[in-house]
Amino acid sequence: MKKNRKGSGPHRGSKPASSAALLDLPVAKNDEVVIDIIGMTHDGEGVGRAEGYTLFVPGALPGEKVRVRVLKTKKQYGYAKLMELVQASSDRMAAPCPIYDQCGGCQLQHMSYAGQLAWKRQLVVDNLERIGKLQVVREDTSAGETCVGDGQDAGHSDKEGILVRPTLGMSEPWRYRNKSQVPIGVTEGGLVGGFYARGSHRIVDMETCLIQHEQNDEVVSRVKAIGRKLGITAYNEETGQGLLRHVVVKIGFATKEMMIVLVTNGERIPRLNEWISAIREELPAVVSICQNVNTRKTNVIFGDVTRVLWGREVIHDYIGEVKFAISARSFYQVNPAQTEVLYGKTVEYAGLTGNETVIDAYCGIGTISLFLAQHAKKVYGVEIVKEAIEDARANAELNGMTHVEFEVGASEDVIPRWKEQGIEADVIVVDPPRKGCDPRLLETILEMKPERVVYVSCNPSTLARDLRVLEDGGYRTVEVTPVDMFPHTVHVECCVSLVRT
Ligand SMILES: C[S@@+](CC[C@H](N)C(=O)[O-])C[C@H]1O[C@@H](n2cnc3c(N)ncnc32)[C@H](O)[C@@H]1O
After folding, report:
1. Which of 176, 241, 306, 460 makes the best surface tag, with the fewest CB within 10 Å?
2. Do the beta carbons of residue 263 and residue 246 sit within 8 Å?
3. 362 belongs to an annotated ligand binding site
4. Is pLDDT at 7 greater than 50 in this prediction?
5. Do 233 and 167 have their domain in common?
6. Which residues, if any, are the signal sequence (predicted)?
């Protein structure tokens, strides 16, 4: 390690000793050192060591040798800025997005896609081992089966332990999002809309986002232009004045139907008919124009009142064969292509033959429930948000599925009640929020003893914690498949198969 520290030892001249010196750390603020990057945090920051002292280095990749400047030191670790790539990783690439450094929406564009997929798999393995104290099958014992191009260990093994599959990625990992939510602001040039500059609430104008569907970009751009022409004011967070807060655009990938939601700080939209005529004339794919009123001083995008200004109340989309109605406020997965991959895995792990009763806990608008219902005798879904259950019921009807029942409530309250009513499940699927499953739900699963549990997770650390509980209660984690729902970001989704032992 090369250092160019000024001064040494805890006391430097007559100046008061720095906190680093007092703590006897090997580096101090503004020191420049050359370090090896040995890992990456779940936030995508490189991790290196200076004489055993951990430094987090945003932008640095595992395997790289970098010169960094120390920005901040704490007792156990510090933060440093990447100054120079002494030796770059073979996974390093130039981020394709011109605003990547300013935006913060993506964190991994400087890493090859194959590298991202391999890192996401390793992140899952690390969590299973460290937090879940679970044994992961390490070596490939099959006859040379590998996942072409991504360097991930893909093989089968007869050994005891969990098989963690290679991350299922996209063949074209760009332009995958079906929903764009753009904050609107104002500069000297007029109305702008794009993203909040990293670490601030300053809105920077943006013409294109490489992970958005191209038509979403075009619609946002035209709506901003129409707004400028009509003299629409932009909302100002500090003063609470101005009308337009956000433009939200949704597209059904399968149907190409589009919806625009204008989120406004007040009911009245001046020159409304001109707005609608201009949108209809310039953007024929738009079948629904809605207004959502949000007059609160908050970061939350939507307010309580939504109304249709023109056209339909919903757009439609398909995931596989299942049709969904999407309203201005309804939650819908943002990457429909990978959603189909994730749900396909869920159905595979559920091992359905058509005779099973399935419970789908944390069911949202019933997307997984309806997917499973194509292969099951009966599906029960439970979700805490009332509006989501209304959507779920409407979607079941839309698809003519009469063997699916939904209930509003907390999974940890409703499922024990179902158990007392005599409902038995062959398979229980859980897809909880980031904090994982409620302990009472895990307890109920252990009491209900379904043959199989499928755990869909957006957070590998709470997943590992919950798998430990299920393992201790008589289940065996057989296989984990990470699915890349959000390429170029640090998020990783997993589908996990468990069987009763
Ligand atoms: C990760 S989402 C899964 C949604 C759905 N399965 C899907 O694929 O679209 C988690 C869902 O759990 C719901 N939720 C949060 N806490 C809950 C609880 N205690 N009981 C039931 N649902 C809950 C949230 O409202 C959210 O819809």
Report:
1. 241
2. yes
3. yes
4. no
5. no
6. none
Same domain for 258 and 344, yes or no, is no
In this structure, are 346 and 469 located in the same domain? yes
How distant is the alpha carbon of residue 267 from its chain centre?
32
The closest residue, in CA terms, to atom 6 on ligand 1 is 363
Q: Ligand 1 pocket, 380 CB below 6 A?
A: no
- Tokens of residue 329, six digits: 């406020």
Can you tell me which residue has the tokens 């770059």?
A: 88
pLDDT at residue 491 is higher than 90: yes
Give the pLDDT band (50/70/90) at residue 154: very low
103 is catalytic: no
Ligand 1 nearest-atom number relative to CA 432: 10
Residue at 73 is within a domain: yes
Q: Is 211 in the pocket of ligand 1 (CB under 6 A)?
A: no
485 Cβ inside 6 Å of ligand 1: no
State the number of CA atoms in the 13 A half-sphere of 468 facing the CB.
15
pLDDT single digits (tens) 217-245: 999 999 999 999 999 999 998 899 999 99
Q: Is the CB of 383 under 6 A from ligand 1?
A: yes
- How far, in Å, from the CA of 213 to the mean position of ligand 1? 26
- Do the beta carbons of residue 175 and residue 218 sit within 8 Å? no
Contacts of 444 (CB under 8 A, 6+ apart): 412, 415, 416, 419
The last residue of a domain, from among 261, 288, 321: 321
Q: CB of 388 closer than 6 A to ligand 1?
A: yes
Q: Do β-strands 452-457 and 493-500 pair in parallel, antiparallel, or remain unpaired?
A: antiparallel
Catalytic residue among 103, 106, 147, 458: 458
Tens digits of residue pLDDT in 160-210: 799 999 999 999 999 999 999 999 998 877 889 998 887 788 888 998 999
